[in-house]
């Protein structure tokens, strides 16, 4: 995965806010990467409605452009 790549949210690992749950199945663009609590790297994704949040890499799948 790389910055600028389109990804689709295909699963959620943890309990999250309803706003984040609504992004399940949606496509967004990777904005940056962030360190998580020691269990890996998080991916910050921005959606068409300007909502931005982070996901674990295994919650996302690349989308063919």
Q: Please compute the radius of gyration using only Cα atoms.
A: 11 Å
Q: Can you tell me the residue ranges where pLDDT is under 50 for at least 5 consecutive residues? A: none
Query: What's the number of extended β-strand segments?
Result: 5
- CATH class value: Mainly Beta
Structurally, how many domains make up the residues? Answer: 1
One letter per element, helices H and strands E, the order comes to EHEEEE
Helix amount: under 10%
In which order are the strands of the major sheet placed? 4-3-2-1-5
> Would you tell me which CATH topology applies?
SH3 type barrels
Total helical elements: 1
Distance between the termini: 14 Å
Described by the principal axes of the CA atoms, the overall outline is globular
Strand content: 35-45%
Task: Let me know the largest β-sheet.
Answer: 5 strands, antiparallel
CATH architecture: Roll
Compute the average pLDDT. 91
Estimated structural class: mainly beta
Protein name: Cytochrome b6-f complex subunit PetP
InterPro entries: Tsr0524-like
Pfam family, one: Tsr0524-like
What's the layout of helices and strands?
Elements: E1 6-9, H1 18-21, E2 27-35, E3 41-47, E4 52-56, E5 60-62
Antiparallel strand pairs: 1-2, 1-5, 2-3, 3-4
């Amino acid at each position: 995965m790389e910055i600028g790549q389109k990804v689709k949210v295909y699963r959620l690992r943890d309990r999250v806010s309803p706003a984040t749950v609504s992004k399940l199945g949606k496509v967004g663009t990777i904005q940056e990467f962030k360190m998580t609590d020691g269990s890996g790297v998080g991916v910050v994704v921005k959606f068409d409605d300007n909502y931005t949040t982070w996901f674990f890499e295994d919650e996302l799948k690349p989308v063919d452009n």
